[in-house]
Specification:
The complex is a heterodimer of chains A (114) and B (679). Chain A is α+β, with helices and mostly antiparallel strands. Chain A contains four helices and three strands; from the N terminus they run H-E-H-H-E-E-H. In chain A, helix 1 crosses helix 4. Chain A is elongated, with a radius of gyration of 17 Å. Chain B is mainly alpha-helical and 679 residues long. Helix content of chain B is 77%, strand content 0%. Chain B has 28 helices and no strands. In chain B, helix 6 runs parallel beside helix 8 and helix 8 crosses helix 13. Chain B is rod-shaped, with a radius of gyration of 36 Å. The chains are: A alpha+beta (114), B mainly alpha (679). Chains A and B meet through helix 2, helix 3 and strand 3 of A and helix 2, helix 4 and helix 22 of B.
């Protein structure tokens, strides 16, 4: 189980990354996160929607209602140009961050005492 | 508590902070609904029972605590900007559009109204169905108007001796009305075709009535003034229009129409009386009554001179007077009469000179007609038809010279047709604003504005209104456009083009807009009623606008006479309590519009799908406001163009006498020649 705060900090880039691949609706995003992390990331589904609305409000994603195959309406989200730019920055930031953290956590010869 | 109740409770909890934005609230509820449906469906696929699946979906979603605040935080900027936009559109754009329409379009209407007010008596006596009481207590006290109406009444057999006496008393120095009455009295007894020599001989050879006519004619011709006071009236009206500062086109049309009108009375009298006198002289000569023959010839010449020399004549007076001898000189007996004495020979010489003047003009006309007629045909006004006959005696305008005048006329027509369309939009907009207001209590705060983004709205207006109008402006330059044709022959085509333009643009624009708004409303869970009647009322109102155009065409143009007869509008016009056709037309259209609006209200306020229709109405009101604004700007543009072309137009501007420059030049030159002959 991953720490909540850590999970919260990467939630936005994760959603941006997923909707950058294809337009997705809320339930689909939840399932995609669950499947790709093999159940490591467990989100309370309700918390996704305020996040989606926040990203939409920031202009990083766009939404559109479409009819699904079952005939139900679904609200699909897709990334905007501004969102794609933001995602690129976040990915770059993340790479730097993980490299730095890894350099500390897994420094050659360093031993963890305790 | 069943599953549906739990869902409702969750939705209510989730959206409790969003009550200020009904659209967002619906959006969130709808999304929650879909999400739970997906959750239930997934659980069912795993083989879970329905009740358990429902419970699992709700549990997976998690508690709502904390989510409402997070939703508000996430949407705060959007909610604020949407509220501002809504405020801007509904309380800013719509009043602005209405104001623009009132200032720009209403101004034109006001001008038309003021011109009609300024000229209503003139219109009243020219209208065939005029019911203006001439000799009743409310008869106009203005001398010129009284005179005009008196003549009109005599023509329609409504006059009487008392009326004539009243006119004589009012204007003792002017013999025009008496001349007209005299003419009418002999005309009633003359053969149907008065130019038939044999028939004329049969009727007038020995008649004592004609001697009486000559007795009566003598003092009339001796009067100091023998001119139509229409001309004076025209000057007065033009001055009054100038004072009002009205548009130049209306001025010009007015001036030209009045100057054209001024010939009507004297036209028939001069030609027919002149011919009758000439022929009577022949009969008297053949019967050996030489004194009577001389008297008839003298009166004939004096009649011609009176109309040309006593007062400032119109062009048509000159043409008609000059044409009188031509008809008589074709008759051998008349030619013989003119050879019978030295004084008659002198008269014959003068008549031949007048006749030569006409012949030269005719010959030149034949040549010039081939070269210049197409240019002249570009002119819509009666003026062109008047002046075409006089070509050769003055400057022959080229297409280049006529272009500004023609362009000004086209812009004038454009402007009025756009204003007609604007009026229809105005009515629709008023309805779209009033309808939701009346239903606010019934629906509480549920009604919302299903607005696509402002940029979408601007793009929609640009693509469905501005672009087609630009294309239409380009179409005007093509050879297929009515602008490339002769206007007198393409008035119907011109109106048709404009009606087609608006009939295509506006409903298509509304339909596209309605479609995108319907999609949005459906996404939010609102469905139109199966029989909403919404499209019906659009069709009814827009059909009404089309009908207004057709009725206008039928009432206002001679080309529309067939339509008038087909629709039985002549009868409607007669039954109408209004004195003029245009007023009857307005009343008829007003009644039809009210009926349409009544039907519309009845259908609109049906409960089924009312919320859907109200939301759609609000979004359409915004679109209509944009369209009204765009068309108002278009009117202003056309008005500016019209003014620009008028400034360039030096040919058809009316002078102080109500004649245009060409006409004045022709009259002056021809009158000088006639003066020379009669000196």
């Amino acid at each position: 189980m991953i720490e909540k705060d850590l999970l919260r900090s990467v939630a936005a880039p994760i959603v941006l990354r997923l909707v950058s691949e294809q337009a997705m609706y809320g339930y689909e995003i939840i399932k995609a996160v669950h499947d790709r992390t093999q159940g490591e990331f467990i989100w309370k589904e309700g918390t996704l929607y305020p996040l989606l609305h926040r990203l939409e409000g920031a202009g990083w994603i766009d939404s559109e209602w479409r009819d699904s195959e079952e005939g139900r309406g679904r609200k699909y989200y897709r990334i905007t140009r501004a969102g794609a730019k933001e995602l690129a920055e976040r990915l770059h930031e993340w790479q730097g961050f993980t490299a730095s953290v890894n350099a500390i956590f897994f420094a050659p010869g360093a031993k963890v005492r305790g | 508590m069943d599953a549906q109740d739990k869902r409702r409770e969750l939705a209510a909890e989730l959206t409790r902070e969003l009550s200020g934005d009904p659209e967002l609230r619906r959006d969130v509820c709808r999304e929650l609904e879909c999400h739970l449906e997906d959750g239930v469906a997934a659980a069912r696929r795993r083989g879970v029972g329905e009740a358990e699946a429902e419970a699992a979906a709700l549990e997976d979603f998690g508690p709502a605590s904390g989510l409402p605040q997070m939703l508000v935080e996430g949407n705060l900027n959007r909610m604020q900007s949407r509220a501002k936009l809504k405020l801007l559109l509904e309380w800013g754009l719509i009043p602005l559009a209405l104001l623009a329409a009132l200032i720009l379009g209403g101004r034109e209407f006001l001008e038309l109204y003021r011109v009609r007010e300024a000229t209503k008596h003139w219109y009243a006596h020219t209208a065939a169905e005029s019911r203006a009481p001439v000799y009743a207590d409310e008869a106009p006290q203005n001398l010129e108007e009284r005179q005009a109406l008196a003549i009109e009444n005599y023509r329609s057999a409504r006059g009487n001796e008392q009326a004539l006496a009243a006119v004589k008393q009012l204007d003792p120095d002017n013999g025009l009305v008496e001349l007209e009455v005299l003419h009418q009295s002999i005309r009633g007894k003359a053969p149907r075709d008065w130019r038939q020599y044999e028939a004329f001989m049969k009727t007038w050879r020995e008649s004592d009535d004609f001697l009486k006519t000559m007795d009566e004619l003598e003092p009339i011709l001796a009067k100091p003034v023998l001119s139509s006071r229409y001309h004076t009236e025209a000057q007065r009206q033009i001055r009054s229009i100038e004072k009002l500062g009205l548009s130049r086109t209306l001025e010009k049309i007015q001036a030209v129409s009045v100057s054209a009108q001024s010939f009507f009375t004297a036209f028939g009298s001069t030609r027919e009386l002149g011919n009758a006198l000439g022929r009577r002289a022949v009969f008297a000569h053949l019967a050996g009554r030489e004194d009577e023959a001389d008297r008839a010839l003298r009166l004939m010449e004096k009649l011609m001179q009176s109309l040309v020399l006593k007062d400032e004549p119109s062009l048509i007076h000159i043409l008609v007077v000059s044409a009188v001898p031509g008809e008589l000189l074709k008759e051998p007996d008349f030619v013989k009469l003119l050879e019978s004495s030295p004084s008659r020979r002198a008269l014959g010489e003068r008549l031949r000179q007048v006749c030569d003047l006409c012949d030269k003009w005719r010959k030149k006309l034949e040549v010039e007609r081939a070269n210049s007629a197409p240019e002249w045909q570009e002119k819509a006004s009666i003026e062109a038809r008047m002046l075409l006959s006089a070509l050769g005696a003055g400057e022959i305008p080229t297409e280049e010279i006529l272009a500004p005048s023609r362009n000004a006329e086209y812009r004038f027509l454009d402007k009025w047709l756009v204003i007609m369309t604007l009026s229809g939009l105005f009515l629709l907009l008023a309805f779209l604003l009033i309808a939701p207001l009346t239903q606010r209590r019934r629906l509480g705060s549920e009604g919302f504005l299903p607005l696509p983004r402002l940029k979408d709205l601007c793009r929609h207006v640009a693509l469905t209104l501005v672009l087609p109008v630009l294309i239409f402006e380009l179409f005007k330059l093509t050879p297929w456009s009515s602008h490339a044709w002769s206007l007198p022959h393409s008035a119907a085509q011109y109106i048709f083009e404009q009606l087609v333009l608006w009939a295509l643009i506006l409903p298509i624009s509304w339909a596209i807009w309605q479609r995108s708004c319907t999609k949005r409303l459906r996404a939010l869970g609102l469905e139109p009623a199966k029989n909403p009647g919404f499209n019906w009322w659009l069709a009814v109102v827009f059909g009404g606008i089309g009908l207004l155009g057709l009725l206008g065409f039928a009432f206002e143009t001679s080309d529309g006479r067939w339509l008038r007869e087909l629709l039985g509008l002549e009868l409607l016009q007669k039954l109408s309590p209004t004195p003029t056709p245009i007023l009857g037309f307005m009343v008829t259209c007003g009644v039809l519009t009210l009926l349409s609006l009544g039907a519309l209200l009845w259908r609109f306020f049906r409960r089924d799908g009312l919320l859907f229709r109200l939301c759609l109405a609000r979004s359409l009101a915004v679109l209509l406001a944009f369209q009204v604004l765009a068309l108002s700007a278009y009117v202003a543009l056309l008005r500016a163009e019209e003014a620009h072309y008028h400034r360039q137009d030096s040919t058809f501007q009316a002078d102080a006498n109500g004649f245009n420059r060409i006409e004045s030049e022709l009259v002056r030159s021809w009158r000088d020649k006639l003066k020379e002959i009669w000196r």
